[in-house]
Amino acid sequence: RYQPDQNIEGNMISYGLDNLYLGSHSADFSKPLLREGPLFDVILTDPPYGVREASLKVGNKSDVQQSQSTLSEQFLELLNFAARVLVVGGRLVYWLPVIRDIYSSSSLPQHPSLQLKYNCEQIFSRKSSRRLLVMIKTRDTSPGDSAFITGDLSCHGQYRELYFAKS
Predict the structure, then answer these.
(1) Which of 17, 68, 76, 90 sits a CA distance of 20 to 30 A from 153?
(2) CA distance 105 to 121
(3) Is this structure's pTM higher than 0.85?
(4) Distance of CA 94 to CAs 45, 86, 120, 157, Å?
(5) 165 contacts: CB under 8 Å, gap ≥ 6
């Protein structure tokens, strides 16, 4: 369990950078934002991979049903969200887990309003790694714009199963 000071502000204080800390906003896709439209310069996130336990898609608190959500669906939702709420020129920075043997850059989530700027690998083992992806919003979204993946979805959609599979 985290201590009350184990957060972004606490980290900034411990590094003597608290005078540079402006604040942060934690949000959940299942809850509405402050307002619609471009709001943020940066979205920085480390989404759950579903390794410790399967990822769940949760609605509002009155919605008791929880359904399993694939990583592909989660990352497509993340890109759609970022395209809606980032200002033009804003950045989406996130980690994407991959199975190294089947990874291909064509399997990266894409969105018509977001351009991939950086793709850096952090290796966990011979089997898996994660990619730090930085995307820049290049234009406002148009009606009908939606995130998509053109390559093999298995490296995201079944990450948990492949992660635990015997080599």
Answers:
(1) 90
(2) 12
(3) no
(4) 5, 14, 11, 17
(5) none
Inter-CA distances, 48 with 9, 10, 56, Å: 22, 22, 10
Which amino acid, one-letter code, is at 70? T
58-104: pLDDT as tens digits: 454 444 444 445 667 888 889 999 999 999 999 999 998 888 888 88
Query: CB-side exposure of 69: number of CA atoms within 13 Å?
Result: 20
Strand 128-137 and strand 86-99: pairing? antiparallel
* CA of residue 130 relative to chain centroid, distance: 12
User: Would you state the structure tokens that stand for residue 124, as one six-digit string?
Assistant: 């966990």
Both tokens assigned to 116? 């991939």
Instruction: Please give the full DSSP string across 95-116, using - where no structure is assigned.
Output: EEEEEGGG--GGGS-BBTTEEE
Q: How many CA atoms lie within 13 A of 158 on its CB side?
A: 9
